[in-house]
Design goal:
Blueprint: E1 10-16, E2 33-37, H1 52-57, H2 66-73, E3 77-82, H3 116-123, E4 129-134, H4 140-145, E5 149-152, E6 172-177, H5 180-191, E7 203-207, H6 208-211, H7 219-233, E8 238-241, H8 243-250, H9 255-260, H10 271-299, H11 307-315, H12 325-340, E9 344-348, H13 362-382, E10 385-394, E11 397-405, H14 410-434
Parallel strand pairs: 2-3, 2-4, 7-8, 7-9
Antiparallel strand pairs: 1-3, 4-6, 5-6, 5-10, 9-11, 10-11
Helix pairs in contact: 5-14, 7-14, 10-11, 10-13
Length: 436
Amino acid sequence: MAVSSDYGAFMEKFILPPLPTTSPAQLPLNRLTFAVKDIFDMDGYVSGFGNPDWLKTHSAATSTAPAVLAMLNAGATCIGRTAMDEMAYSINGENIHYGTPLNPCAPDRVPGGSSSGSAVAVSAKLADFSLGTDTGGSVRVPGSYCGIFGFRPSHGIVSTEGVIPMAQSFDTVGWFSRDPGTLNHVGKILLGLPNEKLVHPNKVLIAEDCFKLLSIPTTRVTKVVATSIEKLFGGDILQSINLGDIIESKVPSLKHFMQNDITENKEFSIKSLVALSTSMRLLQRFEFKKNHGEWVTTVKPNLGPGISERVFDALNTSEQDIGPFDSIKTQLQEALSSLLGENGIIVFPTVPGPPPKLQTETTSLETFRARAFSLLSIAGVSGFCQVTIPLGKYEDLPVSVSMLANHGSDGFLLNLVETIYDTLKEQVSIAEKVNY
C-alpha cells in the first residue's frame, strides 16, 4: 500500500520529464505535474489494471500511450502511476488488494472510481492534473466525490491507443484538475484544438426531473447555476426541461429495456434513464467479456467483493442480451442533438448525492448506484462530452453539477466552464452563507 503522505493515490512514483526542447518555457503545460491511471501503457512499466494477478501475468509496455506522450510533449512532468478499481469495474474507488485512496475532500467517504488515485492526487494537490479513463463514470464520479473538475470528452475524440480496454463502445480518456484553466489547457492538447474565444451558449437547459434524484436540496445547485448564467448571458437562454420524458418519446427502442427491467421505487427513478442505464451496462458486460473473459477464466484472479460478482455477470452475458443498442444510441444522439441545437448545454447532477461512506455494504449501495448510472448513462450512451464542476460543500460534503454538450463541442464546453467558474464560485459562497 502507498504511504499515507501520498493519500494512497499512487501505485508507483517516478519522474518522467517532458520531452527535450529548445524552448520549454513556451510549452503550454510547462512546469505542470501530472499523474497517470494504472491503465495506460508507459514504456518500461507494467500497467496493473488494479489487480495483482493482472500485474503478475503481463509484461512491461514497449511504448507509451499517445495521451501520455501528448502531455510530455506539451511540457508537463509525469510523477507516477495512480491507484484504480480492479479492472476498472467500479465507481467506488475501494480496492481490496491495494487499499482505498483517501478522499481529501471527505476522509470518511469513498473517493470514487475507477480513476480513484488520479482524482485523489489532484484533490490532495500532489499533482496539477491527472489522466484517467471514463467508461461508465470513472472520471465524472471521482471528480464529483473529491471536489475537483473531471472531464469526459466526446467518445472517440481522444485516442485510447495504449489504454487497457474496458468496453470500447464507452471507453474515453478523461482528465482532472483543480481549476478550469488547467482543465482547458490539458483539453486543448488532448483534443488538438486551437485557442478560441468563448462562443456564448444560446440555450441552457436545466433537467428538473434529474435534480429530483438529488439527495440534497435541489435549489442548492440549480439556483447557483441559473443565477450565474443569468448574470453572464441573460436569463432568456435558461429553460427547464423534463429530460426523461423527452428521451422516452424520442428513443422508442428503449421500450425493449423498459419492459424487461424492474425499476426501483418510482419516486426515485426516471423510467427512460433506468432503461438507458440497463442497455449501457449490458453492452459494457458483453464487451468486457470479449476483452478479458479468456484471461479471467484462465488465470482465475482473486477479485474483491462487488468486482467479482460484476466480472462473473459479464462472463455470463450473451450477444442476445445486448438488444437494440445501436438503435438506442442513434436515436439518443439525434434526440439530444435536436434538443441542444448549436451551442446548447444540459445541466443535471453528476451523481445523486454526496459520496457514500467507506465500506458501505454493497446491498445498501444498490439504490444509489442505480440512480447514479441513470444519470451517467446520458453521456455514456450518447457519446456526448460532459464536465463535472465542483460547487463547494453542503453539510461539509462535496457538491457538484454536470454540463453536457453536443458530440465534438468539447472546446466550447471547456471554454464555457473557464468563463463562468468565478461567477459560480461567488454564487456558491452566497448559497453556503444562507444555507439553501
